[in-house]
Specification:
The protein is mainly α. It has a domain at about 30-75. The chain is about 55% helix and about 0% strand. It contains 3 helices and no strands. It has helices spanning about 25-45, 50-65, 65-75. The longest helix is centred in the middle third of the chain and has 22 residues, at about 25-45. The radius of gyration is 17 Å and the shape is elongated. Bound molecules: zinc ion (ZN).
């Protein structure tokens, strides 16, 4: 998180905004978790595991939605998928 979501002041890595004193720990944690989920989704995509990638992206969107994650989810939804052989 580069800027305070409340007042847009630069944060420079701080977890409390020095302008408006907003406590941003939980927002920063959500952002980090969302990014980890997107990374995991990209990893699953590289392994051709579109179903898991889609689930991870859906979770990322509930944790911390970004325009990039939304676009990625739309792409994955349109991804040609393999039919999973039933065992
Ligand atoms: Zn602020």
């Amino acid at each position: 998180m580069e800027r305070c979501p409340v007042c847009r002041a630069a944060l420079n890595g701080a977890e409390t905004c020095r302008r408006c004193r907003a406590e941003l720990q939980s927002a920063i944690r959500a952002e980090r978790e969302g990014r980890m989920l997107v990374d995991a989704a990209l990893h699953r995509l590289s392994l051709d595991d579109t179903g898991t990638a889609e689930r991870l992206l859906r979770r990322a969107l509930t944790v911390h939605a970004t325009p990039e994650t939304r676009v990625l989810r739309r792409l994955v939804e349109a991804w040609p998928r393999r039919t999973v052989p039933s065992s």
